[in-house]
Structures are given as structure tokens and as C-alpha cells.
Specification:
Radius of gyration: 21 Å
Strand order of the largest sheet: 4-3-5-13
Shape: globular
Largest sheet: 4 strands, mixed
Number of strands: 13
Order of helices and strands: HHEEHHHEHHEEEHEHHEHEEEEE
């Protein structure tokens, strides 16, 4: 049986509690909501799980991430209890070896988890899928992502300089959570391509190292738009290009307007095939040493003087989010050897 959390006797003053939590290294530098027994119990009542159930052992610390301890972080992040099933699913996904959370938490790379939510739960919890998505607006997005970040600190042990050796950290380390704008997508929801039914709710975790804005407000045809998207996705420093060619996923977040224009001619699968064929950059953009290393790996990455971005079409993860009328999409190169994972959100039977 996993150890239950202890109740500490701390002066009932918000400033005192926050100073104490900060001194213990339990926070991300922002104020927390005090995780009182009443608040933690209310959080746990949102799921049909025992408090001492172990959901994961997240590296590098590998402390037992019990339902109760996850609930503590969710309270600290200001989650509502109805968000808690999403947080639990995100922790389950984070523990999947394919995501490589050990590398994400200890690398010199700026990578952080990106939580993408699909299915009916998006509307149930008022999750932002549209305007200013990934920015400050909705409590659900801000606090679900922050809860996962606090879990990475307190249960996985992602501690700067000590275990986390990131040269610089993507700002999404504070929170990075979005819902797919399924209602404005011209294709079936993203999670149906991952083997789930449309009426199921899921979380997908990815490992972005940055967010690249792709602007196009002039294209009139799908192919014109694709030419600009291709150019926006190119980057010689991407981990997906080197040294992890052919392994990890890359995320492409299309705004509804871009997606609807592309859908006049392409399915999501056809777009993936297009990027597999056309997303490449001149080998002359890279240093001779890097090109020589690519050639010595003998993976077929360099063809006719060009460097391919991916070995398989399914390495490109395409989903729809963002405001209507906006003409900005986003590209998310990833850790490289990290594969996105999708897990069901288990809602209580009541």
C-alpha cells in the first residue's frame, strides 16, 4: 500500500503558506491554492479511485504518484474537481515509455509535455479550443497543464540544475493544454485517427521543444497554402531532423480557416503523405560535419542533396485549434525520440 500524504500544521495565512511551499521547492514560483484535506478530498471524489492507488512512477524521482498526491497538485494548481479525470489521464499518459518522460525531465533540451484533449469532456469543463488557445483565458486549460507541471516537479523530481539540465526551458513548462476544435474541423477528430471513438474523451501528450507560428493570409488554393506551411515547418536545428530522424512525432496545429481550405483537396492522411514527400531542406543549410554524420547513419535521410524531415507519414500529427477568422497555425517540433501517446479519460459512473 502506498504511503498517504501527511497533514502539516502551517499557519492559516495565504502568504505564510505560499512562502513555506516555495521554500520547500514544491511550487513553480507562482502562488498555489493550499491543499487542505477538504479540498483534496473534494478533488478525489471526482474519480472512482482509492486515494492510495498508484497511477504512475514518474522518472527521474519515481515517487509513487498516487491518486491522493496527484489530487494535491491539482488543488495547488486551482483545478476544479471536474478537471481531475483529465489530470489523471494525463499522468497515465506521461508514464508511457513511448513518451520518454525520463528524457523530457532530465535533458538539456527545452521540451515540455503538451496536453491535447479530445471528445465531449472539452465542452463539459469549458476547455478552450479556439481564440487565444494555449494562451491565458480559460481556467481549465491553465490549471490542467499547471497541475501536470507541478506533478513533474513534486512527484517526478524535475528540478532545475539538479535533475533537469535544460539549457533553457520552453514557457509551456508552466502550463500547456489545449482542446481540439472538433466543431470547426473539416475532418474527423484527431483522436479517432488514434483508435478511439468520436464520443470518447482522451488526452494526447506530445513533447514540443518550441512553437513556430505559421502565418498565411493570402493563399486562395490548398497548394498555395501548403507551400507556405512547408516553409514555416522547416528548421535546420530541429531534433526531428538530427539526430532522431525517423523516430518521433511532430505536431501541426492548423487554425480552422487553414484546415478548411486544405480540406477542399486533402484528407488528413493525404496531408501527412504530402509532408513526408515535400518537407525537406537543402543539405547545404547544414554543416558538413552534420551531413557526414547523417550519411554515415545510412538511414536514407539525404536524397538528391536534400535532407528529409521524416521517414513515415504518421510522424506528422495534425489537429485543429485556434480562433475563427485568424490565419495563424502552429508547428511543434519535438524531442525527437519521443512518440505521442493517447489515453482515455475515465469519467466516474454517476
Amino acid at each position: 500500500m502506498a504511503t498517504r500524504a501527511r497533514v502539516l500544521d502551517v499557519q492559516d495565512d495565504l502568504e505564510v503558506i505560499n512562502e513555506y511551499a516555495y521554500e520547500q521547492g514544491w511550487t513553480d514560483g507562482l502562488p498555489i491554492v493550499p491543499p487542505t484535506p477538504a479540498r483534496v478530498n473534494a478533488m478525489m471524489r471526482a474519480v472512482d479511485r482509492r486515494p492510495d492507488d498508484v497511477v504512475a512512477h514518474l522518472p527521474p524521482l519515481r515517487a509513487a504518484a498516487t491518486v491522493e498526491k496527484i489530487a494535491i497538485s491539482a488543488v495547488m494548481a486551482w483545478c476544479k474537481p471536474e478537471y481531475f479525470p483529465v489530470v489523471l489521464a494525463a499522468v497515465e499518459a506521461a508514464a508511457d515509455p513511448r513518451l520518454c518522460i525520463m528524457a523530457m525531465n532530465t535533458t538539456t533540451n527545452p521540451t515540455v509535455p503538451f496536453v491535447l484533449v479530445n471528445g465531449p469532456v472539452r465542452n463539459d469543463i469549458d476547455l478552450n479550443c479556439s481564440w487565444s488557445v494555449l494562451g491565458p483565458r480559460k481556467r481549465a486549460n491553465a490549471t490542467i497543464g499547471r497541475a501536470l507541471s507541478l506533478i513533474m516537479i513534486n512527484l517526478a523530481g524535475r528540478l532545475p540544475e539538479q535533475t533537469c539540465k535544460a539549457t533553457w526551458k520552453m514557457p509551456g513548462a508552466f502550463t500547456m493544454c489545449a482542446g481540439e476544435y472538433e466543431e470547426e474541423s473539416p475532418w474527423e477528430p484527431f483522436h479517432t485517427d488514434r483508435g478511439f471513438k468520436k464520443d470518447e474523451s482522451t488526452v494526447t501528450l506530445m513533447s514540443p521543444v518550441s512553437a513556430v507560428n505559421i502565418v498565411d493570409n493570402e493563399s486562395q488554393t490548398p497548394d498555395e497554402l501548403l507551400a507556405n506551411i512547408n516553409a514555416g515547418m522547416l528548421g535546420a536545428g530541429s531534433n526531428n531532423v538530427f539526430p532522431f530522424y525517423g523516430i518521433g512525432n511532430m505536431g501541426l496545429m492548423l487554425c480552422p480557416n487553414h484546415a478548411q481550405l486544405l480540406a477542399r483537396q486533402y484528407t488528413r492522411r493525404q496531408l501527412q503523405e504530402h509532408f513526408l514527400t515535400h518537407l525537406r531542406l537543402p543539405a547545404s543549410y547544414l554543416s558538413p560535419r552534420r551531413v557526414a554524420m547523417m550519411k554515415s547513419a545510412d538511414l536514407g535521410q539525404i536524397e538528391d542533396g536534400y535532407v528529409r524531415y521524416a521517414a513515415r507519414a504518421d510522424q506528422f500529427l495534425i489537429f485543429v485549434a485556434g480562433g475563427l477568422g485568424g490565419l495563424h497555425s502552429g508547428f511543434f517540433p519535438t524531442l525527437g525520440d519521443s512518440k505521442a501517446v493517447t489515453y482515455p479519460i475515465r469519467l466516474p459512473d454517476r
